[in-house]
Design goal:
Order of helices and strands: HHHHHHHHHHHHHH
Radius of gyration: 20 Å
Largest sheet: none
Number of strands: 0
Structural class: mainly alpha
Helix content: over 70%
């Protein structure tokens, strides 16, 4: 199953798509700040954001509770969508996704291990958990790629390798939990395995935001090599790309981004599968045009999913990863059914 070759850009259509997504993101942000177990009129939300509102409980809810969550949702949604797009180019398969390939599971296992062992507790949020999540993400991605490439990467090999690695990592996470001396680790592990934005705080935003901005900027400079991979291994090599070295470098970057994002949101699946696919239908497969669209689309998708997670069973907060899986699972099966089998790496 190969990704389509990059399509020519259509400036007017491209600008229109970006404009629509930006408008949807603004609406999603306002709705996420206004709706929840406590509903706040949109006009009052705007007054709070612009500093015209006086001190009130609503101000605390908007600025200290919901706004950090919304901003983290934007960063994580955009990041997962960008990572999914890049992984699909690297393995030339539109079914690639940080969650399906076991990258998110690896990051979660690394994070849980640090939490349970209490390694670097004073620096857990800013250093040890992100570092462990990155290491887990990188190792799982390399393992899946190594398992799948023997005899040529195909849809079934890629998916089965990702599922197998995810199961092993889930079992390892469960083993870590069972052998833990503290019963309260169950809730923390559940957070990492199901994904959620409920723990968002202002001091948690800097690292994932910087990682997203820097990683996406680097990937935009690599748009042409990513496009070359879509034409095939031999074609990319003939055009001067060292595919092995390039793949290795971008795998590390994708793992770093995934590790940091999962360290703050847990494992949220299928955004990196669905959003790139829909974005390609709108603007084509050329990565310089595709990545900004994918980032906006991922941010909108996760914000709306998190809004549903907060409101469907209010005041109970459903893990957002549950909702993205309920949406992404059928989408994955639809893609698996409609695409032909087999594609070389």
């Amino acid at each position: 199953m190969t990704c389509r070759a990059p399509a020519p850009r259509r400036p007017l259509r491209y600008v229109l798509v970006l404009g629509v997504l930006a408008a949807l993101l603004a609406v999603a942000v306002l709705a996420a700040l206004a709706l929840g177990s406590v509903r706040i009129p949109p006009g009052q939300v705007l007054d709070i954001l612009t500093g015209r509102a006086e001190a009130s409980p609503f101000r605390t809810i908007v600025l200290d509770v919901r706004l950090p969550r919304v901003l983290l949702g934007i960063v994580v949604g955009a990041g997962l969508a960008v990572i999914g797009t890049v992984l699909q180019a690297l393995v030339r398969n539109q079914l690639a996704d940080p969650f399906l390939l076991g990258v998110s599971s690896g990051a979660s296992t690394g994070a849980v291990l640090v939490i349970v062992l209490g390694i670097g507790a004073s620096l857990a949020t800013t250093v040890t958990i992100p570092a462990a999540a990155f290491a887990g993400a990188l190792l799982s991605l390399l393992l899946v790629y190594t398992l799948a490439r023997g005899g040529g990467i195909t849809t079934s090999r890629l998916v089965l390798a990702g599922v197998a690695v995810s199961y092993v990592l889930s079992a390892l996470t469960s083993l870590i939990l069972v052998t833990s001396a503290r019963a309260d680790h169950l809730q923390e592990v559940l957070y990492w395995t199901l994904g959620g934005l409920g723990a968002a705080r202002w001091d948690m935003l800097a690292l994932p935001a910087v990682t997203l901005a820097a990683g996406t900027a680097v990937l935009l400079t690599l748009a042409r090599p990513l496009d070359l991979l879509l034409v095939g291994e031999e074609g990319a090599t003939v055009l001067g790309l060292d595919t092995a070295r390039f793949r290795a470098a971008v795998f590390v970057l994708a793992s770093l981004m995934t590790g940091v994002l999962v360290a703050y949101s847990g494992a949220i699946g299928f955004i990196g599968l669905m959003v790139p696919h829909m974005a390609r239908m709108a603007v084509g497969a050329a990565h310089r045009a595709l990545l900004p669209v994918v980032a906006l689309g991922g941010a909108v998708f996760l914000l709306l999913a998190d809004l549903a997670a907060r409101t469907l069973a209010a005041p109970q907060d459903i893990p957002v990863g549950v909702l993205t899986a309920l949406t992404g699972g059928p989408f994955f099966l639809w893609m698996l059914r409609r695409r032909p089998e087999g594609a070389p790496a």
